[in-house]
Input
Amino acid sequence: MYEERLTQRIRNLERKESGRDGGDLSYIVNSIINHLQRILNTRQGSVPIADEYGMPDFTNYQGLGMAEQAKDIADIVKNIILKYEPRLGSAQVAFEPDKDDPLSLRFKLQAEIVHVRNEKVSVELETVISSEGKVRVSK
Output
């Protein structure tokens, strides 16, 4: 039941996808990745029902050092995940600099998927914020 977001469950009922196994771990992880990308690519203040939903404007971070910016952004990403993605618990977000692309910010997300077959399932994802502000989440 908790493997999918509500809108996915409704869409699947409409499509009558009863053959798909809702407990498939790769399906759950992909659903979480898609939802995180949607959240993290939404700007705060653009969703009328929740002013805090999404990422804040990072133009206010000019003048801070890269390490300070990265720590602040990692904390923001972690708080957004814990607040808006209930399928993940015990989230930890750590900055990992990318020597090949110094203009992007790369973070490692480690968390546990909750409500999966009554067992703890750990997941490690990579979150990259490009210089254009676009966020990509991947395995």
